[in-house]
Amino acid sequence: MTEPADSCPCCSGKAYNKCCGPFLAGSATPRTVKQLMRSRYTAFALGGHGDYLLESWHVSARQGLSAASLAARSTRWTGLKILKFEQQADRGMVEFAASFSDKDGSEQVHHEESLFVRENGKWFYLRAAE
Length: 130
Ligand SMILES: [Zn+2]
Hints:
- The structure is a single chain.
- By secondary structure, this protein is an alpha+beta fold.
- It has one domain: Nuclear Transport Factor 2, Chain: A (Roll).
- The chain is built from 4 helices and 4 strands; from the N terminus they run ααααββββ.
- A 4-stranded antiparallel beta sheet has the order 1-2-3-4, with helices on one face.
- The radius of gyration is 14 Å and the shape is globular.
- Zinc ion (ZN) binds next to α2.
């Protein structure tokens, strides 16, 4: 498991241990959909955080997922931009653009509006909006 010493992979400009690090380590819980979105991106970017990804996935949408497969670093993620976010009561949305290098090394962008729900005070990723 890689532990970046300086800037967080989620491109917040903050140090990893002041940004997504505590969430991935389990010593803090994301309080906003933006924090959860960033930490999930960082978990994918670093690899080795399958448990975190699985546990922050809403139980209704976990079918076919496993911590082992989520821990695999199959994509080289190179950057994250949060374009928009909304939070209302226990529902949230984050629109983002995540860049990655494909296997030929050319830069691609994954654009998504992610939907989140909060249960018992904890945010979960539900699915991408249609
Ligand atoms: Zn971060």
